[in-house]
């Protein structure tokens, strides 16, 4: 193998690794954020806490849609819950187009300090949803604010938390990205 061939092979390998890293970055970042609560990302809990505090928290619900012919709204703008108490919120999505929509909802929590303590027991987020033309679907979110919020120095004063969801299109995303990169094209 000549030096030029070796350099070309190394460059091709590096380019392939960069492409794989680009596709893996978003799911790995989402997993990292869900596990750690980093950047205000809500954690998925296995069970509700056994301790309910006298302290109240006001939860605000925010909904957004990115490049989709749909409406998305929370059935309630705010809820007041005791810290440690399980809350339930409902969100309704309506496909306003004449074709099915494939979408996924991502979320975060503000302020960021509350992210590790705002935990969900049930959620529709990060799961691809198919919504038929003209269809309305209601999604539940079961959540709680962990009692540890009250003792965290950085989050101790937090009593208002905003849970924000954004629906974005997902069908064909990977196929379009692969087509743009040239992978899978007959050569």
How would you characterize this protein structure?
This protein is an alpha+beta fold and 187 residues long. Helices cover 23% and strands 37% of the residues. It has a five-stranded mixed beta sheet with strand order 1-7-9-5-3. It has a five-stranded mixed beta sheet with strand order 4-2-10-6-8, with no helix packed on it. The chain is flat. The two termini are 23 Å apart. The relative contact order is 0.21.
For the termini, the CA-CA separation is 23 Å
> Which series of helices and strands comes N to C?
HEEEEEEEEEEH
Using only C-alpha atoms, the radius of gyration works out to: 21 Å
Q: What is the percent of helical residues? A: 10-25%
Number of helices: 2
Bulk shape = flat
Number of strands: 10
Runs in which pLDDT lies below 50 for 5 or more consecutive residues are 173-187
Query: Which structural category fits the helices and strands?
Result: alpha+beta
Average pLDDT, all residues = 81
**What fraction of residues sit in β-strands?**
35-45%
Instruction: Trace the largest sheet across and list its strands.
Output: 1-7-9-5-3
Largest sheet data: 5 strands, mixed
Summarize the structure.
The protein is of the alpha+beta class and 187 residues long. The chain has helices at residues 3-36, 173-181, and strands at residues 43-44, 56-65, 70-74, 78-82, 86-95, 101-110, 118-122, 129-131, 136-145, 160-169.
Please render the helix and strand layout as text.
Elements lengths: L2 H34 L6 E2 L11 E10 L4 E5 L3 E5 L3 E10 L5 E10 L7 E5 L6 E3 L4 E10 L14 E10 L3 H9 L6
Parallel strand pairs: 1-7, 2-10
Antiparallel strand pairs: 2-4, 3-5, 5-9, 6-8, 6-10, 7-9
């Amino acid at each position: 193998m000549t030096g030029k061939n070796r350099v070309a092979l190394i460059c091709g390998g590096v380019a392939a690794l960069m492409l794989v890293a680009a596709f893996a970055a978003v799911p790995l970042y989402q997993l990292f954020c869900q596990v750690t609560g980093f950047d205000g990302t809500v954690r998925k809990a296995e069970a509700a806490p056994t301790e309910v505090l006298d302290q109240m928290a006001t939860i605000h619900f925010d909904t957004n849609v990115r490049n989709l012919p749909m409406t998305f709204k929370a059935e309630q703008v705010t809820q007041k819950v005791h810290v440690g108490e399980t809350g339930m919120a409902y969100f309704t999505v309506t496909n306003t187009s004449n074709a099915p929509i494939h979408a996924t909802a991502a979320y975060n929590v503000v302020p960021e300090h509350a992210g590790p303590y705002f935990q969900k027991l049930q959620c529709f987020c990060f799961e691809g949803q198919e919504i038929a033309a003209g269809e309305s679907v209601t999604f539940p979110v079961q959540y709680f604010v962990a009692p540890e919020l009250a003792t965290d120095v950085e989050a101790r004063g937090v009593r208002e938390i905003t849970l924000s969801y954004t629906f974005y299109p997902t069908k064909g995303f990977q196929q379009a990205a692969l087509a743009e990169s040239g992978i899978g094209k007959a050569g």
